[in-house]
Amino acid sequence: MKWLSSNKIAFVYGADANWGQLPERDLELTRELVRLKKETGFPHTYFVNSAKNATERIYDIAKLLQEAGLAKGATLSMQSWDKNTLTQIKRSNIRLKTYTDLQAKFKSTGTPTYSELIVGLPGETFDSFCAGIDQSIEAGCHDGLAIYPCRVLPGTEMAKPAYRAKHGIVTNMTAILANHADLTTKDVGPVEYEETIVATKTMPAEDLLLAHRVSWFVQAFFCMGLARYPLLWLVEHGTSITTFARWFLNRTEGKDWEHVRPEDLVLFPSVRWPPEEATWLALSLDRSEYFEELIDVLRVFCGSEDRSLTGSTGLFAEVQRNRRDLIHWGDGDPATFARERVWYGRRGGSFLTDQEGS
User: Fold this and answer.
1) Where exactly are the structural domains of the chain?
2) What are the backbone dihedrals phi and psi of residue 271, each rounded to the nearest 5 degrees, phi first?
3) pTM of the predicted protein model
């Protein structure tokens, strides 16, 4: 830690997947990090995954890191909410009460929280995966929900032939494409590959692909705030976010708008934007038209399948609230805004709400 600080290492990713599990050590090490940050200004950021069932220590550690400016939130990783899936991958999750208690404590201090789910885990079905997204949101995960494809790592049980056969695991070797990589650089060096699950016995390839599309919708329109308030209104009135997402994706399948084209992002840095960020940036260029279309989509949804329009005035009011809460371009330069707020400032949601009255 002293070496990192004295050599001015700005970003440190802690490899410990259960920071806070050891009662004395992890709290002591966190205090040392905070001391070094105050003394030298480095590191700027310390990112680490929290322990799963140590409520008070997770909170105390996250609070220390937050107050020192070392972290922009706490990560509460779930991977899956489905009991059968957790049994198949031999994982013991954070308890629901622990999760909701932590969410409430962090919210009371203004500390953002993030959760992580994985697409394509053995034993997971499309329906149980969607249910996990909805449970995460209902439990209070509003600041950030990261959803990753399941990868088979060498040397793990999932890589063993017998385990693959039991769960019908089908994989592809996919190139590792780093988010925000500079697309103008021609000499990128050797390309690395990873083994990614594309189908299992419980989630056929078609279902897994749809799960990725639902993930994109939830991250872009809920987590990144494009339609967060009206989506929460739907949840309060009995319609889950993934139910709306599935309806929406079914109606828009094959439409041109689903694909953000390079020419849609010419005002922004030429980097590889994650799909949800590319969507946010493209739609933000003409917010008036976007929100008008959002209202039209919600009207169609409320009127479909005998859904009642009763109380829908409140739904459309939430759209206007959403419109007001999405921050303006700041200094008027889209490239700077995209880099400083969407790319660098995504964690913590600083690009979503106009906290400075601009």
Assistant:
1) 72-343
2) -130, 170
3) 0.85
